[in-house]
Known about the structure:
Structural class: alpha+beta
Number of helices: 7
Largest sheet: 5 strands, mixed, barrel
Strand content: 25-35%
CATH superfamily of the largest domain: Nucleic acid-binding proteins
CATH class of the largest domain: Mainly Beta
Amino acid sequence: MSYEDSGGFDNDDNQSSQVPKKYRDRNFDVQNLIPICVMQAVYAENTAEDTFKIEKVEINMVSLVGKVVSVTPKNNRISFTIEDVSGKIEVNLISKIREEVVEHQYVRIYGFLRRWKDQTNILAVSLKKVTDFNEITFHTLDVIYSTLYLRKGLLPQESTKSAYTQAKKSSYQSQPSSQYVAPSTSNTLDDKVVDSVKNTISNLSENSSTGVRKRTIVESLAGHYSEAEVKDAIDKLVDNGDVYCTEEDFFKSN
């Protein structure tokens, strides 16, 4: 089995192909980014090759905040160990990400869970340094909220709005109110597409000054929405002022 077959990296220099094809072809749910802690990653149920469940719900992309405790540069990637209060896990960072990984520094990563030689690890497709340590606390709250959501469904809005969402808006403006947003209750497919595209742009462009490429957005939502639907949703978000174009075919959230 080649390394690419086991979760390695494509050689294509195009930004949209930095994520291995088998991850781009996953059956993405409407909300495909879930905040987790290390323990949830380690004990996630591996139901099939690179298919995982947490709280009996299939997950795709995850977000994790922790401290880098060791770094091991390798030929085509950077391998490092990240730690939070629940444990440690190995992370492999795609080589085209030009972000320096420094020991003892807190970082936020976005990526996919993988199973290799009976060990769970994370393939990171995005990384940013944590500069405000409130982000660590707020990520913990995100993990608690999303875990309860996966177990019990949508939480009462009044109780979470005052104690949680408002605290985030007032104390940490640069973070969204929750990394895991309840699916749209609208009955129209158009609104669901727009909500999902808006979420995807916000999450994937968070640590980039140029934003995220349109092709990457389309491929992230492949399997749920057609290319035309995603592009129409991007146009609508631009018209509404929710996202803006930084350069040709690159978009970022306001």
